[in-house]
What does this fold into?
Amino acid sequence: MNPAALLSDSTVAFIQREVAIDVASCSSNLRPSACRGFACRVSADRQRLTIFVRRNEAAQLLQDVLEQDTIAVVFCLPATEKAIQIKGRQVNLSAATAQDLDDVNQYRDSFVDGIVQLGYNRDFGMAYMATEEGQLVAVSFTPEVVFEQTPGPRAGQPMEDAPA
It folds into this structure.
């Protein structure tokens, strides 16, 4: 399926809001690797997604995505547990730019505002989401399939309806 057809307007809006982002892959012997993601950028043509990860906590994941060319990313809205998973291939890595860091900081601020409304301490949120210049890696990939991941009877099913 054409990647752009997978990413409806509402899906794009959802994955770019104050969602928790978990990035995963696996080694050749299927040993999983995972880390936290920071912000999601959707290319203008919706053919590519870019997630930012902290190099120091993503070493195994970065090795796995390059060796296996497979990635899965879960986006979960903490306020509702609404979640979707996007799997993809054609993974490329690059150093994050100054503009990327600005985008990640904007995402961080939105995410922290969201969890503060749930009762979390702002200082905790800022520490949890802290990044430093030179630390971020941009992980870009072509989406291949989108799954519903909200807990319930449709979890794990291919998306039919757009996220609310």
